[in-house]
Amino acid sequence: GKAGGADGAAPRQREASEEAAQREEEQEDDGDEDLRDGGVPFFVNRGGLPVNEPTWERMWRHVAKIHPEGDKVAQRIRGATDLPKIPIPSVPAFQLSTPIPERLEAIQRYIRELQYNHTGTQFFEIKKSRPLTGLMDLAKEMTKEALPIKCLEAVILGIYLTNNMTTLERFPISFKTHFSGNYFRHIVLGVNFGGRYGALGISRREELMYKTPTFRTLSELVFDFEEAYRRCWHTLKKVKLGQYVSHDPHSVEQIEWKHSILDVEKLGREDFRKELERHARDMRLKISKGAGPPSPTKDRKKDVSSPQRGQSSPHRRNSRGERRPSGEKKPADSKAMPDLNGYQIRV
């Protein structure tokens, strides 16, 4: 009850603030409304498509607030009767003989053609906790609607468009950086082909998205992103790395977004490199043991009914359990950090 008086107040307050921090983390994981990145809020369209009236009006109010020309730009566009028709990019199709690096280049070109979304309203709601099959349905919708996208949407799209490339492994890489008193978040899809690393994605900055799969190690790839950030005067604070994502578009597993959470400053250069290589080893081991994401199997394809969903819950619990040992090794790094699905660099 209410007994306990002042003695219990401090622990309760502490618990409350920890709960609030946890809630904030979960909200940001889900791409929640009015997220802030670098001090700038952005909204998420939760009403699906076509965009409903309240979301549409909120978007234009927000555009007027964040655009240098304010209301004028909104009035000019909304009042125009002769806006040019925007071409819809066609989804790349490949012949079996097309080499993987060429396919990745075409996929990146397609993602770029959709264009970066500068409106401050993300058009597709991406809940990171959704099973892969649901996220793949969403990616299909993105290709139909061909609307501008932000970095988290580009990652989901990248997974969808590379699902049939079973010799290519995909995993999320999230960045948290600091610039001019604010924190910024960004995410790309890491890829591994023939032991070489690269990335797919979208950003306002050319050097913070596509990387050809030519990096010999995971640390070389991440250091390349860090250097690109440095050129924009951003300091890399944290890197979160997920596990390889299943190639089965009907999988009811969740994407593991943050198997390793690395605090760049606490680790120091050499330990940071070692932890990146340890993560790369973890991913390789999971695949070689067959514990990693399976390529589509006949059984899985035949039956993705509700019993299958029920059976999948223990797997998800296991994968969370597997994450704990790495957290125990470096407890300082496991503190809850907001996820990286917001605006990227703003300089």
List the helices and strands and how they pair.
Blueprint: H1 5-29, E1 35-37, E2 40-44, H2 53-66, H3 71-78, H4 100-114, E3 121-122, H5 132-145, H6 151-162, E4 168-179, E5 182-193, E6 196-200, E7 211-215, H7 218-231, E8 235-241, E9 260-263, H8 264-288, H9 298-302, H10 306-329
Parallel strand pairs: 2-3
Antiparallel strand pairs: 1-2, 4-5, 4-8, 5-6, 6-7, 8-9
Helix pairs in contact: 2-3, 4-6, 5-6
Active site: 151, 186, 203
Region (Disordered): 1-43, 283-347
InterPro entries: VASH1
How big is the Rg?
A: 21 Å
Q: What's the SSE pattern?
A: HEEHHHEHHEEEEHEEHHH
> Alpha-carbon distance between the termini?
52 Å
- Tally the beta strands: 9
Number of helices: 10
The rough form would be described as: globular
Helix content: 40-55%
Percent strand equals 15-25%
What are the segments in which pLDDT stays under 50 over at least 5 consecutive residues?
A: 1-8, 20-34, 297-347
Biggest sheet record: 6 strands, antiparallel
**Which class best fits the helix and strand makeup?**
alpha+beta
Strand order of the largest sheet: 7-6-5-4-8-9
Global mean pLDDT: 81
Oligomeric state of shown chains? single chain
